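Here is a protein:
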Amino acid sequence: MVFLFLKFSNGFCHNGIIRTQPIILLGIIHDALYTRKGFDLLSREECDSVLRGLMRDSGISRFKAGCADKAVEWFAGGEDHWGNDDFDNFDLISMA
């Protein structure tokens, strides 16, 4: 088991695509990992795996987690999103 502690400073923004609970928190974590390129500890695939695992641990069905995974692949699969800091969040996310 691996523990990952993220700290978000005031002013952090995310893409806001996912708006239902508890998925919104999971999306924020995934956005943070993508913005910081996995903190040079996790590959892109591992960051996606973190999202899937958190979804399943939160009680989200395998089907819905799979759909979310496909959505990430389709809409964030390009190099434009890995390390993207359009919201100027890079310095607002740290690992504790």
Summary: The mean pLDDT is 83.
